[in-house]
Design goal:
- This protein has 502 residues and is an alpha/beta fold.
- Helices cover 33% and strands 27% of the residues.
- The chain is built from 17 helices and 27 strands.
- The strands form five sheets. A nine-stranded mixed β-sheet has the order 2-1-10-9-11-12-13-14-15. It has a seven-stranded mixed β-sheet with strand order 6-5-3-4-7-8-19, with helices on both faces.
- α13 (278-287) links the parallel β12 (268-272) and β13 (292-297).
- The N and C termini lie far apart (55 Å).
Amino acid sequence: MKNILEYLERTRERYPGRTAVDDGRVRFTWDRLADLSRRIGSALAGMTQPGRPVAVLMEKSSMTLAVMLGAVYAGCFYVTADPRQPRARNLELLELLEPAVTVAGERTAQELREAGYRGAVRGPEELLLEKEDTARLWKIREDGKGTDLLYGMFTSGSTGKPKCITVSHEAVIRFITHFTELFGIRAGDRIGNQAPFNFDVSVKDIYSGIMTGAAVVLIPRKLFSAPPLLLDYLEEKKVTVLIWAVSALCLVSSVRGLEYKAPGTVRKVLFSGEVMPLGQLRLWQEALPHAEFVNLYGPTEITCNCTYCLVDKNCENVEKLPIGRAFPGREVFLADEEGRPVAVAGTIGEICVAGESLSSGYYRNPEETAKRFQVRRTGDGTEKLCYCTGDLGYYGAGGQLFFAGRKDFQIKHMGHRIELEEIERTMETISGVIRSCCLLDGKRSRITAFYTGEVLPGTVRAELKKRLPAYMIPGKFFQTGQMPLNANGKLDRAYFRKKLEG
């Protein structure tokens, strides 16, 4: 199959009356979801051309998913954005995309008009007034190719301008096929969706459901500020699979939410986005002793993930989780600053990825695409198109691949090259420390550490001195009550940077 909609329609035929998506208020069966999507697609097909982007500025909901798939039926690719983010940001995204049509709720549409946006904005209710044009949708599908774009996802750009990563149908089909087979996701599962639709973790939720028939249970954003209510919701909805960002899991375990209730129906927990603090992982393993835990790694540019590690049920003596082995169809290797493969254990290199499911690059940004997607000599000596992640890694003594931080988190301090994330991971092994964030304070020429937990700064310093060389010990420690997250659910380092500069 070359188009993801073929899987949607196959699932519709197999399980027409089963739940496809449930947002807590509105539940669609597979039959209903496909029907709504085709009607929306028929309306959009009359407003734009195949291959063009359709911007979707809607809160996460069952209807939002129908709109996204409607864009795909129209032969377009959808690009979701958070309607809550500043107007200026959304206008910037729309300026880059130049969509023929933007789908938004009434309030967001009004805000866009007030901000001076002159493009066409339509609400989902208006699109649903259109009757399904079966012949037109069929012709669009017949003319399509596997390399056609399925979605775009924005990420911040090094120039200060956002970049839109584009991903094709065939990239998603290949990755999700491996993903669902490796981890045994099946039609009877109920996937608890944590991530916003503009964050690529949600791609695994949505398309695992579409390809297998598993129900996608959308978890309201507000529940993550009330862990007991969140855990009640997981139990009520009988969620079996969690594919969550690390920070979302830690939001529950760090406030002792699992002592209130363990989501007993959950049989798999897959996490990604950041390094999982081992203390928090153990809390989840103790709460769900029969569940399988998987550490996933990979940036949006390679379609979700490129490596995985099945976590040992007894990781008491583990100091750091490996990011594991490459997914089928991928080649993951390390390269030095000259682009040469790195194979010596313990030597740090940039993580590079080749093989199937690379993204199609950055929309309308050939310069940045050429910069990050390069032909490199891989570990087996052949030259292939690779994505250079900007992440650092090294091989352990047993050949396992380990994450070693971002290139842009690597600093030079007291004559030494230091990975700030290594300090953070070491801090998080100290009893009483939950999460941490380290930054270089350039004005004072010192490393500053922020952390949550009950242990006092003096004790943290003393414990670090037992585990790290003197040049890696932060000069200042701040005990804080929270670890704010950014829009993608990752640690908000910009928040702490502002505190330093203030």
